[in-house]
Amino acid sequence: MSRPSSPAIRTLIGPGRYVQGAGALGRLGEHLRPLGSAPLVVADDVVWGFAGHEVEASLRAAGLPARREGFGGVPSAREVDRLVGVVRQAGADVLVALGGGSTIDAVKAAGFLAGTRWATVPTVASTDAPTSALAVIYTDAGEFEEYRFFPRNPDLVLVDTQLIVSAPAHFLAAGVGDALATWLEARATVASGSATMAGGLPTQAAAALARLSWDVLWDNALPALDAVRDHLVTPAVEKVVEANTLLSGVGFESGGLAAAHAVHNGLTAVPQTHGLAHGQKVNIGSITQLVLEGAPTSEIRDFVEFTTRVGLPTTLTEVGLRPSDTEELARVAAAATVPAETIHSMPFAVSAADVAAALASIEGFSRRVRAEAGLPEPVPFTGRH
Description:
The chain is of the alpha/beta class. It has helices at about 30, 45-60, 75-90, 100-115, 160-165, 170-190, 205-230, 235-255, 260-265, 280-295, 295-310, 325-335, 350-370; strands spanning about 20, 40, 70, 95-100, 115-120, 135-140, 145-150, 155-160. It folds into two domains: about 20-165, 3-Layer(aba) Sandwich (Rossmann fold), CATH 3.40.50; about 170-370, Dehydroquinate synthase-like - alpha domain (Dehydroquinate synthase-like, alpha domain, Up-down Bundle).
């Protein structure tokens, strides 16, 4: 699962070019042209329905063919292999992911196997997948299977913030959940001296970007979400999109992952959580990590209150579980603590029993914090957003 590393080497990696702003999609062809002459865009039918026309126009204006392939919905080994076959048959030399994190991970994995360059064009700011040199591969049923690592990051990451604000606000909220974990996990990795996903020790630059992502989100997430609900691009939106995508992307990859994402991976092992966004499950992982750390009560309370206001789950109820689900929590904890998991980057040993206890404990604490803050009671998750 982990990239080979040297304990004496510090490493920072990132995308070849990052482009962000309202209307950026219209310049896709301009930025793809230096990368190749035969692009293939991968997008599902929904995404292609609202973005395909502009993509085609931009590619044709740059003298590039406008070819598109559909996406199957889950970045599984089967879907990746299917896309590799399509790429080779089409003779594509640049693979472009247009969509969310699942499409992006599948394209990165397929581009590597097919020997092409690859670019990512996220249509939501819901994960930090667009910038990284790794993909999360799931089973066809949606359970975490493995991380796949690649020798380079995307050649291009292009983010049109006008597209981002056209999507429902819960996508941006999920990205906030994913990005907030970046600093919590980076500081744990720095403290333990563990290797990162980039293949070395954390750099000061990556840790600083992780902390910057955290600070930007605490200052801007709530006004940005208000703006997105009105489909407006504001300075707060631009800051949050950059924090969710670039700052968190470089910050997690070269700063380190720890318990929060391991708990996310564990949560995918129980069917009750299927249908939740990546960042929603990560937020439960972040709270679990804070509990495992024995963080000050005030810090955990502030995190629960803030992320509840963002619209993220802060109780087991909201991810389809209960503290009394001992069998399911044990399964989550076991998956989160397998030998190769990132939870072992914590600066202390963590057992499956520790994780199960921490998970069970957050329900009562979070409910009390929410009640004291006058926030709504948790709504049970039933498999649909």
